[in-house]
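User: Can you help me understand a structure? I only have the sequence.
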Amino acid sequence: MAKKILFLVGDFVEDYEVMVPFQLLSAVGYETVAVCPDKKAGEFVRTAVHDFEGDQTYSEKPGHNFTLNGTFDEIDETEFDALVIPGGRAPEYIRLNPRVLDIVRHFANANKPIAAICHGAQVLAAADVLKGKKCSAYPAVGPTVNAAGGTYMDIAVTDAYVDGNLVSAPAWPAHPAWMAKFMEVLGAKIEL
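Assistant: Let's start by predicting it. Here is the structure, written out as tokens:
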């Protein structure tokens, strides 16, 4: 039976950070379910494309509509083996939802694999699961990681960091490293 992976998303989630891992993990055989507070399966979230073009921070452009395949109010987190929290704008407001925080705490307390990228660490901080953990994130989220009792890992934008069950990365250019390390934590055996 395939492992089930839950994605927590919201409107203006970063386009690449939801679509690429969702499709990749599905392609290699995991059962992936994406949910958003106050939305049902078949509805969609709007995404935003964040790009690095030499400005002081990322630029933001309209992305795609990403169709949800799960209903938030029907999710039983105990049925899932792992959690993915993409970045973008969504984490800044889905972290205000108490049920989102309960879901995140379940995965952390059960020591199930968690993959967070970019601003996804905002949700981890709000759920109070970063104490004593090392976590990468978009640099502007570094102070949030530290304030939540974690240690912000300032790594290359193409790299990922593993601390036990937590796999984190600064932004979508890290997808190859982030997904490879996450699948390793999931117990996948990749042979080339």
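Now, to help you interpret it: Residues 78 and 97 are 19 Å apart (CA to CA). The two ends are 23 Å apart (CA to CA). Let me know which part you'd like to focus on.
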